[in-house]
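URGENT: need a sanity check before tomorrow's submission.

F., can you look over the N-acetyltransferase domain-containing protein record below? I want to be sure the sequence and structure line up before it goes out.
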Amino acid sequence: MHTARLRLTPIGPHLADELYRLHADPGIARWYGTWTRADAQARAAAIGRGWAAEGAGKWLAHHRESGELIGRGGLSYQDVDGARRLELGWAVREVHWGRGYATEIGRAGLEYAFETLGAGEVLSYTEVHNLRSRAVMERLGFTYRREIRRGGEPFAFYRLSARAW
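C-alpha coordinates as predicted:
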Protein backbone atom coordinates (compact mmCIF):
# COMPACT_ATOMS: atom_id res chain seq x y z
CA MET A 1 0.00 0.00 0.00
CA HIS A 2 1.17 3.54 -0.74
CA THR A 3 0.29 7.00 0.48
CA ALA A 4 1.50 10.27 -0.95
CA ARG A 5 4.88 9.93 0.78
CA LEU A 6 5.00 6.43 2.23
CA ARG A 7 5.25 2.78 1.29
CA LEU A 8 3.37 0.66 3.85
CA THR A 9 4.50 -2.97 4.14
CA PRO A 10 2.58 -5.51 6.25
CA ILE A 11 4.74 -6.61 9.18
CA GLY A 12 5.65 -10.27 9.46
CA PRO A 13 8.61 -12.30 10.69
CA HIS A 14 10.76 -11.14 7.77
CA LEU A 15 10.64 -7.56 9.13
CA ALA A 16 11.58 -8.36 12.75
CA ASP A 17 15.00 -6.67 12.48
CA GLU A 18 13.47 -3.44 11.16
CA LEU A 19 10.79 -3.54 13.86
CA TYR A 20 13.55 -3.93 16.45
CA ARG A 21 15.44 -0.97 14.96
CA LEU A 22 12.26 1.12 14.95
CA HIS A 23 11.52 0.42 18.61
CA ALA A 24 15.09 1.33 19.56
CA ASP A 25 14.25 4.93 18.60
CA PRO A 26 14.18 7.03 21.82
CA GLY A 27 10.86 8.67 20.93
CA ILE A 28 9.16 5.32 20.38
CA ALA A 29 10.84 3.57 23.32
CA ARG A 30 9.54 6.37 25.56
CA TRP A 31 5.96 5.20 24.88
CA TYR A 32 6.40 1.48 24.21
CA GLY A 33 9.37 0.55 26.40
CA THR A 34 12.66 -0.96 25.28
CA TRP A 35 12.34 -4.06 23.11
CA THR A 36 14.85 -6.85 22.78
CA ARG A 37 15.42 -8.62 19.46
CA ALA A 38 13.36 -11.50 20.86
CA ASP A 39 10.49 -9.07 21.61
CA ALA A 40 10.60 -7.75 18.05
CA GLN A 41 10.69 -11.27 16.60
CA ALA A 42 7.71 -12.35 18.71
CA ARG A 43 5.71 -9.22 17.86
CA ALA A 44 6.52 -9.43 14.15
CA ALA A 45 5.40 -13.07 14.12
CA ALA A 46 2.17 -12.21 15.98
CA ILE A 47 1.41 -9.31 13.63
CA GLY A 48 2.05 -11.60 10.65
CA ARG A 49 -0.42 -14.14 12.08
CA GLY A 50 -2.97 -11.34 12.47
CA TRP A 51 -2.59 -10.36 8.83
CA ALA A 52 -3.03 -14.01 7.77
CA ALA A 53 -6.00 -14.78 10.03
CA GLU A 54 -7.89 -11.48 10.15
CA GLY A 55 -6.68 -9.47 7.17
CA ALA A 56 -5.56 -6.66 9.49
CA GLY A 57 -2.32 -5.70 11.16
CA LYS A 58 0.39 -3.12 11.41
CA TRP A 59 2.61 -1.86 8.57
CA LEU A 60 6.14 -0.59 8.56
CA ALA A 61 6.23 2.84 6.91
CA HIS A 62 9.16 3.76 4.67
CA HIS A 63 9.61 6.97 2.72
CA ARG A 64 8.66 6.24 -0.90
CA GLU A 65 11.64 8.07 -2.41
CA SER A 66 14.49 7.60 0.07
CA GLY A 67 13.43 4.25 1.56
CA GLU A 68 14.10 5.62 5.05
CA LEU A 69 12.24 3.93 7.91
CA ILE A 70 9.67 6.45 9.18
CA GLY A 71 7.51 4.45 11.60
CA ARG A 72 4.78 1.90 11.84
CA GLY A 73 1.04 1.88 12.17
CA GLY A 74 -2.18 0.25 11.20
CA LEU A 75 -4.89 -1.88 12.69
CA SER A 76 -5.29 -4.62 15.24
CA TYR A 77 -8.16 -6.25 17.05
CA GLN A 78 -8.32 -5.44 20.76
CA ASP A 79 -10.64 -6.48 23.57
CA VAL A 80 -12.33 -3.29 24.74
CA ASP A 81 -15.46 -3.18 26.90
CA GLY A 82 -15.83 -6.95 26.62
CA ALA A 83 -15.93 -6.92 22.82
CA ARG A 84 -13.35 -7.50 20.11
CA ARG A 85 -12.95 -4.17 18.33
CA LEU A 86 -10.75 -2.74 15.58
CA GLU A 87 -8.09 -0.34 16.88
CA LEU A 88 -5.85 2.05 14.95
CA GLY A 89 -2.40 3.05 16.15
CA TRP A 90 0.92 4.47 14.95
CA ALA A 91 4.46 5.17 16.09
CA VAL A 92 6.82 7.52 14.26
CA ARG A 93 10.56 7.94 14.78
CA GLU A 94 11.23 11.03 16.84
CA VAL A 95 13.28 12.73 14.11
CA HIS A 96 10.09 12.77 12.00
CA TRP A 97 7.64 14.11 14.58
CA GLY A 98 5.62 17.12 13.49
CA ARG A 99 5.76 16.33 9.76
CA GLY A 100 2.31 14.75 9.37
CA TYR A 101 3.48 11.14 9.05
CA ALA A 102 1.31 9.83 11.90
CA THR A 103 -1.75 11.44 10.30
CA GLU A 104 -0.82 9.96 6.92
CA ILE A 105 -0.40 6.48 8.41
CA GLY A 106 -3.64 6.88 10.36
CA ARG A 107 -5.59 8.00 7.30
CA ALA A 108 -4.34 4.93 5.38
CA GLY A 109 -5.45 2.72 8.27
CA LEU A 110 -8.93 4.26 8.31
CA GLU A 111 -9.26 3.88 4.56
CA TYR A 112 -8.30 0.22 4.85
CA ALA A 113 -10.66 -0.34 7.82
CA PHE A 114 -13.71 1.26 6.26
CA GLU A 115 -13.22 0.58 2.56
CA THR A 116 -11.49 -2.82 2.56
CA LEU A 117 -12.62 -4.44 5.82
CA GLY A 118 -16.06 -2.79 5.91
CA ALA A 119 -15.67 -1.85 9.58
CA GLY A 120 -18.53 -0.02 11.26
CA GLU A 121 -16.20 1.78 13.66
CA VAL A 122 -12.55 2.14 14.57
CA LEU A 123 -11.17 2.88 18.02
CA SER A 124 -7.95 4.54 19.04
CA TYR A 125 -6.42 5.20 22.42
CA THR A 126 -3.26 6.59 23.95
CA GLU A 127 -1.88 7.59 27.31
CA VAL A 128 -3.89 10.53 28.63
CA HIS A 129 -0.81 12.80 28.60
CA ASN A 130 0.23 11.92 24.99
CA LEU A 131 -1.09 15.15 23.52
CA ARG A 132 0.60 14.61 20.12
CA SER A 133 -1.25 11.35 19.48
CA ARG A 134 -4.49 12.81 20.78
CA ALA A 135 -4.12 15.69 18.30
CA VAL A 136 -3.60 13.17 15.46
CA MET A 137 -6.76 11.32 16.50
CA GLU A 138 -8.74 14.54 16.42
CA ARG A 139 -7.30 15.54 13.01
CA LEU A 140 -8.43 12.15 11.69
CA GLY A 141 -11.98 12.79 12.91
CA PHE A 142 -12.02 10.64 16.05
CA THR A 143 -14.19 11.79 18.93
CA TYR A 144 -13.03 11.53 22.53
CA ARG A 145 -15.32 9.18 24.45
CA ARG A 146 -13.84 8.67 27.91
CA GLU A 147 -10.85 7.58 29.96
CA ILE A 148 -10.15 3.84 30.13
CA ARG A 149 -7.60 1.76 32.02
CA ARG A 150 -5.04 -0.41 30.20
CA GLY A 151 -2.53 -2.21 32.38
CA GLY A 152 -3.66 -0.03 35.30
CA GLU A 153 -2.77 3.19 33.47
CA PRO A 154 -5.22 5.90 32.27
CA PHE A 155 -5.73 6.11 28.52
CA ALA A 156 -7.77 8.54 26.42
CA PHE A 157 -10.24 6.50 24.38
CA TYR A 158 -11.49 7.75 20.99
CA ARG A 159 -13.96 6.41 18.43
CA LEU A 160 -14.74 7.05 14.76
CA SER A 161 -17.78 5.56 13.04
CA ALA A 162 -17.91 4.63 9.39
CA ARG A 163 -20.78 7.13 8.99
CA ALA A 164 -18.56 9.98 10.21
CA TRP A 165 -15.69 8.92 7.93
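My own read: The chain has a mean pLDDT of 96. Residues 75 and 88 are 5 Å apart (CA to CA). If you see anything odd, call me.
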